């Protein structure tokens, strides 16, 4: 597959509003509507206590795009209901599914399973359109640089996330918790036979990239309603313990936001300081805390990965500085020997763009690396 060409072709067909037919791979891209109900009142109470930002005058509980939105599914053509599915989870500060379209097509085509592209809270199409409009947000970049001396990596691409997390780092956990509730609801609806594409008791596996891997780890650790007892998880460029991640990048978040995030979660959050009254000390919180520092809830975390090592696989990249291999080993403990494989590619790549699809040089090598990774993922999922 020519990743560069196929990405362009799929991107031209992709839509949140209307179904598209992929004749070459005999797949359909089908949009579905999601309205959150599971945990909705708790999420609202949580979000009311998070201070609004200057570029968005309302609190997060009033942002309707985050509560009701469309998601898409790559599904083999035909009207037969399926009994297997893969949920694909993306990275932090993502606004477009562009790079993931070839991933979803390959996984669906190779496994015969529908692949659900599900957006994390306040990502992709779950925000007001103005948040990712360069003309709208560029003035805020200038103001942020004026307010913070020697600010590194502040750009129009990360100003929204950086400002929101700097204003209150608790947003990171709130959005993660909301996303867990959303996935909980989606999987529950599918397993109950309430989704038009799936049979009752459908088997569901996860492909998770970057911060989506952290979300998946929390989901499997917390295991709401025991719905994920048999779920397989394939992590790519993700799975690191939180304290070893480095999100300071022009297309993720600026240095001030990242530093405040690390300070807050490694100390205040773990010590239950500065938390809102609506905050719950429960199984979801425990699962997230276990993923913050290697020394916190270590036995709980590592024993889980040891027990689940036959249904979890991970591929890290040697030159990935955002989600480094060492951080993944610290998260998985001894189970990393069975779960983790580090790879390297003979071309210039990054965590954010593991398979460069906008450049023509080294294209055969890029295509080969893509096939190597995703053939492993498809075989496992």
Structure description:
It is a single chain. This protein has 381 residues and is an alpha/beta fold. The chain has one domain (3-380): Rossmann fold (3-Layer(aba) Sandwich), CATH 3.40.50.1820. 40% of the residues lie in helices and 15% in strands. The chain is built from 14 helices and 9 strands. The chain has helices at 3-13, 40-48, 64-67, 101-111, 134-147, 159-167, 170-191, 211-222, 255-269, 283-289, 298-307, 325-332, 336-339, 363-380; strands at residues 20-22, 27-35, 68-76, 82-89, 115-117, 198-209, 233-236, 312-317, 340-343. Strand 4, helix 4 and strand 5 (115-117) form a beta-alpha-beta unit. Helix 2 (40-48) runs antiparallel to helix 7 (170-191), helix 4 (101-111) packs across helix 14 and helix 8 (211-222) packs across helix 10 (283-289). The mean pLDDT is 94.
């Amino acid at each position: 597959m020519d990743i560069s060409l196929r990405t362009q072709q799929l991107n031209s067909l992709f839509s949140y509003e209307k179904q598209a037919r992929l004749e070459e791979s005999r797949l359909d891209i089908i949009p579905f509507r999601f309205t959150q109900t599971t945990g909705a009142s708790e999420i609202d109470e949580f979000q009311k206590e998070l201070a609004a930002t200057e570029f968005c005058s309302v609190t997060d509980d009033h942002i309707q795009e985050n509560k009701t939105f469309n998601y898409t599914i790559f599904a083999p053509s035909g009207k037969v209901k399926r009994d297997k599915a893969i949920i694909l989870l993306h990275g932090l500060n993502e606004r477009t599914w562009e790079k993931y379209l070839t991933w979803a097509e390959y996984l669906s085509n190779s496994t015969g399973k529908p692949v659900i592209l599900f957006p994390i809270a306040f990502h992709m199409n779950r925000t007001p359109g103005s948040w990712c409009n360069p003309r709208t947000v560029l003035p805020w970049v200038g103001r942020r640089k004026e307010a913070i001396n020697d600010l590194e990596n502040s750009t129009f691409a990360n100003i929204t996330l950086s400002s929101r997390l700097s204003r209150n780092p608790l947003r990171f956990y709130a959005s993660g918790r909301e996303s867990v509730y959303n996935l909980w609801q989606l999987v529950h609806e599918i397993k109950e036979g309430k989704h038009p594409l799936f049979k009752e008791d459908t088997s569901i596996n996860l492909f998770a990239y970057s911060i989506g891997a952290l979300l998946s780890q929390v989901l499997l650790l917390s295991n709401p309603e025991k719905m994920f007892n048999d779920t397989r998880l394939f992590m790519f460029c993700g799975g690191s313990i939180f304290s070893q991640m480095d999100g300071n990048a022009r297309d993720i978040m600026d240095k001030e936001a990242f530093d405040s995030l690390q300070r807050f979660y490694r100390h205040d959050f773990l010590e239950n300081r500065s938390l809102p009254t609506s905050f719950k000390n429960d199984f979801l919180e425990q699962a997230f805390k276990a993923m913050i520092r290697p020394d916190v809830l270590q036995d709980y975390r590592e024993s889980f990965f040891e027990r689940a090592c036959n249904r979890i696989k991970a591929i890290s990249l040697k030159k990935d500085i955002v989600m480094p291999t060492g951080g993944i080993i610290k998260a998985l403990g001894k189970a990393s020997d069975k779960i983790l494989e580090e790879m390297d590619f003979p071309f210039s790549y990054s965590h954010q763009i593991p398979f460069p699809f906008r450049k023509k040089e080294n294209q055969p090598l890029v295509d080969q690396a893509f096939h190597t990774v995703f053939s492993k993922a498809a075989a496992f999922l």
